[in-house]
Amino acid sequence: MEAAAKVQRQMVRLRGRSYVAFVFTPTVPVQDWLHEIDATIARSPGFFAGRPVVIDLSSVDLSQAGIGHLLTSLQDRNIRVLGIEGVEEGRLTPMMPPLLTGGRSCVVEPSAPKKAELKAETKPTSLLLENPVRSGQTVIFPEGDVTILGSVGSGAEVVAGGSIHVYGALRGRAMAGVNGHTSARIYCQKIEAELLAIDGFYQTADDIDEALRGKPAQAWLQGNTMRITALN
């Protein structure tokens, strides 16, 4: 009776959840790199607000004090750093974001419902979405191309290892070639994007030619420069 009267202890329930994080890779001189961040924020105020950011310090050799100054500088710009990678753990203090390891370019987490299970272990090289990607949704497919028969709403995100094809309006963010595929392209029937990116090179809404707004367009990389032109 005494045992039955005891309140049963509830097990802690742990859940996994994936988020898309921007990875910042500072370069020297760091002050010039921060000026580039300022320029991006000036073009699109609030662009990084509320978005998880990881700092990759593998390209710079910063002391503990230098890392602290960098984190403070980013915090002053309303950029919250989720974690740090590419540095020895001994250079971080307990008050700094944690050291992250094992990160990948992205994780498969398509927003669309899964269809029939694929036989064997063959992975698809393309993803077809028949429904629009609504505001707040994220579609991530690092294995290849993503084709969307509808539109991509404002605040939505599409991330692909290959090219991105949108047969409607592209109002959100499209990031193609995330695994280093510089030949990837972005196509849409109506360009009103908040951000376009290919292999880490990006342009925001203010960078896109006003003459292209609302028209079919394509984006590709020419060296280290993104080109956006009319889709003929």
Put the structure in a nutshell:
This is Probable septum site-determining protein MinC. Helices cover 13% and strands 28% of the residues.
Structure commentary:
By secondary structure, the chain is an alpha/beta fold. The chain has 2 domains: 22-91; 126-230, Pectate Lyase C-like (3 Solenoid). It is built from 3 helices and 14 strands. The chain has a 6-stranded mixed beta sheet with strand order 4-6-8-10-13-14, with no helix packed on it. Strands 5-7-9-11-12 form a 5-stranded mixed beta sheet, with no helix packed on it. The longest helix has 14 residues, at 30-43. The protein is globular and about 50 Å long.
* Total number of helices: 3
Total count of domains: 2
Helical content stands at 10-25%
* Portion in beta strands: 25-35%
Stated plainly, the CATH topology of the largest domain is called: Pectate Lyase C-like
Q: How many E strands?
A: 14
Instruction: Give the radius of gyration.
Output: 21 Å
Function: Cell division inhibitor that blocks the formation of polar Z ring septums. Rapidly oscillates between the poles of the cell to destabilize FtsZ filaments that have formed before they mature into polar Z rings. Prevents FtsZ polymerization.
Keywords: Cell cycle, Cell division, Septation
Family: Belongs to the MinC family.
Domain Septum formation inhibitor MinC C-terminal: 129-228
